[in-house]
């Protein structure tokens, strides 16, 4: 039976916490002083790029300093921070680990674009911590040891179960970490001006500096420091925007008031004839592209001939050099062959069709679901699909939260079982600070854009539009498609991933606030990436190599191996990230579905049903993971492209791929139950382990397989 290490005396724990309180209070004051100092430098004329690089280098240097100061080769320190983390600080570190690039960067943007539908993320992610507190965290802490595969391998007495858990942990964590490195690369590019691909690998170095030397001990304290930065950075511009629009410094309190104004502005935009012109223009563009796609070789040849004639005419007429260069670039930008032309024009046609709808393709913000339950058959079907996907996503995010290995391992780090449960409460408190603000941020930004930006002449557009267009035109672009010289809502494309980062500029705040928000997003992405890379390397070095291949390896060599594997995994993740994956929130949601289907049934039944055995767990985990991965691979556009899958995607009951766990979780439960009942009962040692983690010694029932 596995037992937890004895906790330190309560008096020593209280003294330790008091020291931590003092250190992090001084750190918070130091960060605020740094922001004020950079604001002063901006007023004195310091260039924006220097301010951005200053925030980037200063914050990363602090995190790296904490990481190097926490270096260790002691396994209990490297894997679980010595089990010394107080409940409040573990809750803060967990919230930082949780507040990934998707939460910090993508959540408010998704709420901006999807309105009510985006609330599924908030409901699922916060509700999931109730499952963590009730079904998982206290039992893992009482079990002790280091990882989730550790628990599953010991509970089911099977290296096969451990190996499947290792594979599942690597798969869902790798999917998740790609999104984090993308976020870090995006922010690094914005702050430093580096190309995105170089920014990704610069971000990789930042991540490794925080976690490479000290493992979980380093990650824990850097995550606490990162939470302080990210929550200040997130709240400051939203509070200012709230004051600017309403005079009230509590954005959460004015959410409903501003939402009513959004509804009125949406009605005006729906009746605006200029918006109707934009819709018709995008329809015409889509039709023109469809015509080209009917005969791609002829259309491509015609485009080349026209571009050449224009360039020759400008050259012959001694036109200004700028016009000649523009025509030359237009000729060079044409597709090289029919295959590329087909791909480019098909994508452009789909984009034009998506924008040839009212409100730039966004649903009315307060409308619960798309479609109309009382409308035509197509509208009723759309309503059913929308509602079904909302509920499926809430389910997958809740269950996935209670199954993510990099989150669950945090509850190994507390001194006692009681503090593990308390730290879940602290986690929720620290998470709610951001999650109650994100819906308000989305509404405040939408009001600012609808009421101020729409209708602005193109030659007077704010500088932030040009700045973000240079970072990635796919994230933000504007086009005067109806030629009236005024920006209509349908003529601006805003990606979800820049709403938060652009909020200070949208609100008209000094650039130093923009740099601070970017530093907050960097902290959010770094904190989660650290935890994920540590989970992957520990799964390979501890669970696979030490537990299954070479149990006699020395402790120092085991930790060294984990560090080397972390480096290799980080480079691989950065290489995938350089391919520019799609929407962060979609990618992260897929990781939740994979974790939910792989781990949740085996964890819950492993704790609460003694009859669950090794064969049931192994086959249940494989079945849940297999069906979830299959559905994502055959329905998600980006993954299909990577795998070379052609043809239309077949959705089951209209469920989107990011909610694939809604199929895998029930299958996992069913397979574990059926197979366990059809195969021999687990060994007495496994039943004794269940009783040990669920009951105090004097309350344990008789060891019978039930």
* Average pLDDT taken over every residue: 84
Shape: globular
Q: In sequence order, what are the helices and strands, one letter per element?
A: HHHHHHHHHHHHHHHHHHHHEEHHHHHHHH
Q: What is the count of β-strands? A: 2
Largest sheet: 2 strands, antiparallel
Strand order of the largest sheet: 1-2
Rg, alpha carbons: 27 Å
Poorly predicted regions are 1-5
Portion in beta strands: under 5%
The CA-CA distance between the termini, in Å, is 20 Å
Q: Helix count?
A: 28
Structural class by secondary-structure content? mainly alpha
Helix content range = over 70%
Overview of the molecule:
There is one protein chain. With 706 residues, the protein is mainly alpha-helical. It has a domain at 273-387. Helix content is 74%, strand content 1%. The chain is built from 28 helices and 2 strands. The protein has helices spanning 10-43, 48-69, 75-80, 87-98, 101-114, 119-143, 148-156, 159-192, 196-211, 215-246, 255-270, 273-294, 296-316, 321-332, 338-355, 377-401, 405-408, 417-435, 438-453, 463-471, 499-506, 511-549, 555-577, 584-608, 614-635, 637-643, 661-678, 684-694, and strands at 476-478, 492-494. A two-stranded antiparallel ribbon has the order 1-2. The longest helix has 39 residues, at 511-549. The relative contact order is 0.16. Mean pLDDT is 84; it is low at 1-5.
Task: Please sum up the structure shown.
The chain has 706 residues and is mostly helical.
Task: Give me some keywords for this one.
28 helices; single chain; disordered N terminus; 2 strands; 706 residues
Write the layout of secondary structure elements.
Layout: H1 10-43, H2 48-69, H3 75-80, H4 87-98, H5 101-114, H6 119-143, H7 148-156, H8 159-192, H9 196-211, H10 215-246, H11 255-270, H12 273-294, H13 296-316, H14 321-332, H15 338-355, H16 377-401, H17 405-408, H18 417-435, H19 438-453, H20 463-471, E1 476-478, E2 492-494, H21 499-506, H22 511-549, H23 555-577, H24 584-608, H25 614-635, H26 637-643, H27 661-678, H28 684-694
Antiparallel strand pairs: 1-2
Helix pairs in contact: 1-10, 1-22, 2-8, 2-9, 2-10, 2-22, 4-10, 4-18, 4-22, 5-19, 5-22, 6-16, 6-18, 6-28, 7-8, 8-9, 8-22, 8-23, 8-24, 8-25, 9-22, 9-23, 10-19, 10-22, 11-19, 12-15, 13-14, 16-24, 19-21, 21-22, 22-23, 24-25, 24-27, 25-26, 25-27
